[in-house]
Amino acid sequence: MLVKPELPINLIVFTTLRRYVYLFVGSALVAWLTITVFGWTWLALSATPITMVGIALSVFLGIRTYAAYGRYWEGRTLWGKVATVSRHFAHQSVAYLGADVARGLIHDQSLYVHALRCHSRSQQILDDPHVQRIAPDQRRLTLKRESNIPAALVARHHGFLADATRNGDLSDEQLRSFDTSLRDMLDVQGGCERIVNTPLPASAVFFARWITIIFGVVLPFCLAATMGFGVLIIAPLVAFAFLIIDVTGETMENPFSSDPYGLPLTSISLTIERNIRDRVGENETPPNPPPGGPMGNVQY
After folding, report:
1. Number of H helices, E strands in the chain
2. Burial level of 221, CB count in 10 A (0-12/13-18/19+)?
3. What's the pTM?
4. Distance (Å, rounded) from C-alpha 94 to C-alpha 174?
5. Sign of CA dihedral 187, 191, 197, 203
6. Digit-coded pLDDT (tens) for 102-152
7. Cα-based distances in Å from 150 to 110, 202, 259
């Protein structure tokens, strides 16, 4: 996630989007040479159809970007709730069971947070260094048999708390309070899985990009006759503006990705672990990874 407003513009324009920039500039150059220099006016197109396409494309891209931002904000809201529920669960554990008994629950909750991070990013949970740091070999071997490791960790919470109630260490009212926290964990996990398993329709992503490309290639042939040399500047800029809107929607579509535009789930997970382990006097959590990226402004 970008933590500063600076962007590596040169990297974005001349590396990530380089082929599209060359295509739009090349199309503008061909239109200027053929129509203005060589006088092949039969290649000049009416501006009316491309104007209508531009209006429709702007609406289409706006709707897609809005939908992508909704997914991004929902992902951030869900992980904000992960932090809230985890801290509340740690407070409950210490208050109801005491620090010595709560230590095991808090370790499992730390493991759950890192497992949910990997689960949200479709990564191998048991290969994650933070999961390996918290979970002993025997625990990882047990979890390897589970098809949904985060849900299995919540079930482990449930089993431990039910046993504590049967042994008289928890009252029924305290168990119901814990049940609310555990249900909230599963609700958050379900929301993350909904985002991961329900991407934007492929047709919207595919057609948005191709219509943008076609628009950028055709536009100079509609402007060259009236703008002359200026088409070499104006047409690529207009096409690039539409392309940036399309790319913005694409980068926000998956809020859990590990690229620079995804949410900093590693830092969030470590912060949550640090907060909840403080409740039992442990300060062994590693620091958040330093910002990286070309400009040192990306938090992972």
Report:
1. 11, 0
2. buried
3. 0.85
4. 12
5. positive
6. 999 999 999 999 999 999 999 999 999 999 999 888 888 888 889 999 999
7. 11, 29, 23
List Cα–Cα distances, 7 to 10, 43, 289, 296, in angstroms.
9, 39, 20, 10
Give me the amino acid identity at 78: L
Q: Which residues contact 75 (CB under 8 A, 6 or more apart)?
A: 120, 192, 195, 255, 256, 263
Q: What are residue 298's DSSP bridge partners?
A: 2, 292
Contacts 24+ apart (CB under 8 A), 281-290: 281/99, 282/103, 285/110, 286/130, 286/133
Residues 229 and 33: their CA atoms lie apart, in Å, by 9
Return the structure tokens found at 131: 């999961």
- Alpha-carbon distance of 106 to 90, in angstroms, equals 6
- 219-235 pLDDT, tens digit each: 999 988 888 888 899 99
Q: What is the largest CA-CA distance in the chain?
A: 93
Phi, psi at 99, each rounded to 5°? -65, -40
Give Cα 90 to chain centroid, integer Å. Answer: 27
In terms of Cα–Cα distance, which of 137, 131, 133 is closest to 149?
131
Q: Which two tokens stand for residue 228?
A: 């002359």
Looking at this protein, which amino acid is placed at residue 165? T
* Backbone CA torsion sign across 159, 161, 167, 172: negative
CA–CA gap between residue 288 and residue 297 (Å, rounded): 14
64 with 253: CB under 8 angstroms?
no
The dihedral built from the CA positions of residue 48, 54, 55 and 56, taken in this order, carries a sign that is positive
Rounded distance between C-alpha atoms, residue 193 and residue 90, angstroms: 24
Q: Which residues contact 262 (CB under 8 A, 6 or more apart)?
A: 1, 254, 255, 256
Distance from C-alpha of 251 to C-alpha of 259, rounded to nearest angstrom: 9
